[in-house]
Structures are given as C-alpha cells and as structure tokens.
Amino acid sequence: MLDLKRITELVGELEEEQLLEVLADFTKASPSADEAATVVQACQEGMTIIGDRFSEGEYFIGDLVFGGELLTNTIKVLKPFLGESDSTISGKILLGTVAGDLHDIGKNIFRGMAEAAGFEVVDIGIDAPIQAFVDMAKEVEPQIIGMSGVLTLALDAMKDTTKALKAAGIDSKIIIGGNPVTQEACEDIGADAFTTNAAQGVKICQGWV
After folding, report:
1. Which stretches in the chain have pLDDT values below 70?
2. Angle at which helices 33-55 and 105-116 pack, to 10 degrees?
3. Which domains does the chain show, CATH number per domain?
C-alpha cells in the first residue's frame, strides 16, 4: 500500500532519488486518476514543509528552486495517470503568478494537472504585470484566467489585475490560488473562485467548461 506520508516526507527532505524510486513502483501498478491525484496532493504537502523550512531559515532559495524542479518532475511522471485526454481540448486557461510575486511552484502544479485534464494552458510566468494579463487575454481569449500568488501582497495585485481585466471587457472566469487566498479575499478581489489545492482548482475549472 502506498505510504502518502512517506511521499510528503521525501519531498520535504528534498530526497529526489528516493522519491522517484517510490513513484516508479507506484506507476507500475497503473494507478487510477484519483490515486495519482492523491500522490500529487501528498507532494503539495511536502512543498508546504519546504516553505516552512525556508521561512525558518533552514532552507534557502536554492532549496526552493530545487523543490520546484522536483515537483515538475513528479508531475511529468504522474501526468499520464492524472486523467485521460484526447485531441479534444477541454478549454483554454490563461495562467500566471501576479506582479510582485516570484513563486511558481503552485502555479506549475496546477498547470500540469490542468494539462493532464485536457486544458490548453497559456502560462505567462511569474511577476506578471497587469497589462500582460490583459494583453494576453485579448490575444488568446481564454475561458478561464488563473492568478497565483504566495505572498500577502499578491492579494492586492490580484485585485488590481481583476479590475483591469473587467475594465477591458474581458469576461473570462477568474480563479485565484495560493497560501494567502481565502473566501473573504476572493470576494474582495472579485474573482469567481479560489483554491489552495491544485486538484480542486482543476475540478472547478472543469465545472465551468
């Protein structure tokens, strides 16, 4: 039986080799999409450990970057099992980390899971200016716009970006995600939904399309 707690610990300890060995054994059994999603969630919990250790001064920027790469590799391994997608695109999502925030781990996890679910994802990266969201939304006409942020100041950037998008006449659904996001913040920002869990976020998007 898969030890999800062990997976969380391996991510938190940045034990890439051991983690990939566990994942290799896991995928040999052809897991279901739900089973694969629970592993991604366990990895997300491991990223919380990394974030906490960074805040406490135990880990450094290099460790955060390595953790992000570790998660990216994990998503690549699990992507074939996260959901069957064919040539039909479920919908289009414009995604980015808002201005003033340089974190991309949560964004990348969400992108990987959304792509596995059949979405076309246009990722404009980190520290994305308000105008970048507006311009790209006009260009690609996404059904959904996802804004990510880890820092508390990201909430103001999300609110300003949402106002600019609506002022530009863009009527895409807006979902926000990240540690500081709450129902109260979602309402203040003017977003349609919020999530702190990538799998849940993808389900919300699927409900919209």
Report:
1. 1, 83-89, 116
2. 170
3. 4-81 (1.10.1240.10), 91-208 (3.40.50.280)
